[in-house]
Amino acid sequence: MLDSRLRPMIDPPLARIATLLTRRGVPANLVTGAGLGIGLLAACAAGRGCFSTALGLFLLSRLFDGLDGHVARQHKPTGLGGHLDLMADFTVYAALPLGIAVAMPDTALVTAFLLASFYINAASFFGTAILAERRRLRSSANGPKSHYHPRGLIEGAETIAFFTICLLVPDWFAMLAPVFALLTLWTAASRIPVAWRLERGEG
After folding, report:
1. Interior angle at CA 30, CA 123 and CA 167, nearest 5
2. Relative to the CA of 23, which of 12, 57, 77, 190 has its CA 20 to 30 Å away?
3. Cα(83)–Cα(159) distance, rounded to whole angstroms?
4. Which residue, among 179, 53, 181, 43, has the nearest Cα to 103 in the 3D structure?
5. How far apart, in Å, are the Cα atoms of 160 and each of 63, 68, 70, 73, 106?
């Protein structure tokens, strides 16, 4: 929901950093891999109860996630690069709550509910994207993408904010996770009418 509003503020500095990386020959897929590795380290830190360290690593991984697309556009974006970027994002967002649950075993049930909502949302995301691709539609509200990017109530900015709060105040995780899971499920459900219109050729 907030991604398109934040883009005008965050894209210019990210583009400048990406230019520096491009001049040094850093490929976009390497940036994606670095973001994934740092995100997994954040999950490991959370699992050890080092939540402040986990937060710093998580935010750094999201910086790399924002950079890889800009680096790719300064080279030549590829479908593989877009695929790897999505895989890295979903992996980090799956690993981090698992790390929190390891540190706080009493949150296992709400963690399972949260991960289930992510799973369902991913299905709606990719299902809608497939229908849009069949109609040769493109989305640009959240910046240029190598694939159709369905919008929703819960997007990247909201997810980053959620995990930031949970890592700042871990005791809130058990309370916030079910709420965020319900909002994520709402996002998934909201794409059903979109898919219906796309199937009818009204997209």
Report:
1. 60
2. 57
3. 20
4. 43
5. 11, 17, 19, 23, 23
Residue with tokens 């700042």: 168
The confidence score (pLDDT) of residue 78 equals 79
pLDDT in tens, 69-81: 889 888 777 788 8
Closest CA to 140 of 11, 23, 53: 11
User: Domain range for residue 31?
Assistant: 3-199
C-beta of residue 162 within 8 angstroms of C-beta of residue 180: yes
CATH code of the domain containing 57: 1.20.120.1760
d(CA 126, CA 147): 10
Look at the chain and report how many structural domains it folds into: 1
Quote the mean pLDDT of the chain: 88
Structure tokens at 163: 């995990």
Model pTM?
Answer: 0.87
For the CA atoms of the chain, what is the radius of gyration?
A: 17
Q: Please, are residues 91 and 40 in contact by the beta-carbon 8 Å criterion? A: yes
Are 162 and 175 in contact by the 8 Å Cβ rule? The answer is: no
The pLDDT tens digits of the residues spanning 99-116 come to: 999 999 999 999 999 999
Q: Which residue has the tokens 């883009």?
A: 7
Any idea which residue has 């895989």 for tokens? 87
